[in-house]
Design brief:
The chain is an alpha/beta fold and 199 residues long. It has one domain: YqgF/RNase H-like domain (Nucleotidyltransferase, domain 5). Helices cover 37% and strands 19% of the residues. InterPro entries: RNaseH-like_sf (IPR012337), YqgF (IPR005227), YqgF/RNaseH-like_dom (IPR006641), YqgF/RNaseH-like_dom_sf (IPR037027).
Length: 199
């Protein structure tokens, strides 16, 4: 095999920098952060959902800026059949809202979505193995789900040398806080108040 063919098959260089993993729930949004080399994923914070004013989206955008994040990966909660549910549409709308917020602030950070059908079960299992009682799961499971999503994304990125998940579809003017947008997204393989401008 020629050197040109080997070069063509080599994975593209991974963009250095921290990545943010997000699990969008009905009540809370779990957030996880990677190290600058995008090797490890650790829990960062939990945000309270704010469907009316989108305050959680503003806080998430501030976290992206504060930690100099180079890419955001939002969990895509598909049905086991691969179809969409209300939770799927809500997560898509939330990701669209974050994408718009980042663009409005002039922060060029891509937002992608990754199939998270197994993240909840894996998160509960990880917490039990860590000695966290089921009674305490509510306060920790959202962040752990975000860690699970981010770990899957980092694994895909290092394995392929490219991007994890799929692009967020255009919002077409939908309200990011409502979770009612009906956009279709293809499946991919698989309460902090930081300082900053919230206007």
């Amino acid at each position: 095999m020629s050197s040109e063919q080997l070069s063509a098959q080599a994975p593209t260089a991974i963009r250095p920098g921290r990545r943010l993993g997000v699990d969008v729930g009905t009540v809370r949004v779990g957030v996880a952060l990677s190290d600058p080399e995008s090797i490890l994923a650790t829990p960062l914070t939990t945000l309270e959902r704010d469907r009316r004013k989108g305050f959680d989206i503003k806080l998430a955008a501030n976290l992206v800026h504060e930690h100099e994040v180079v890419e955001v990966v939002v969990g895509l909660p598909l049905a086991m059949s691969g179809g969409h549910t209300d939770s799927t549409r809500a997560a898509i709308a939330w990701a669209q809202g974050l994408q718009r917020r980042l663009a409005a602030k002039g922060w060029s950070v891509p937002v992608r979505m990754l199939d998270e059908r197994w993240s909840s079960a894996e998160s509960h299992r990880a917490l039990l193995q860590a000695g966290v009682s089921r009674r305490e799961h509510r306060d920790k499971v959202d962040r752990q789900a975000a860690v699970t999503i981010l770990e899957a994304a980092l694994s895909m990125i290092h394995r392929s040398g490219g991007l994890a998940g799929v692009e967020v579809p255009p919002a077409d003017g939908a309200d990011a806080g409502s979770g009612a947008h009906q956009t279709t997204v293809a499946s991919a393989e698989t309460t902090a108040h930081p300082e900053g401008d919230l206007s």
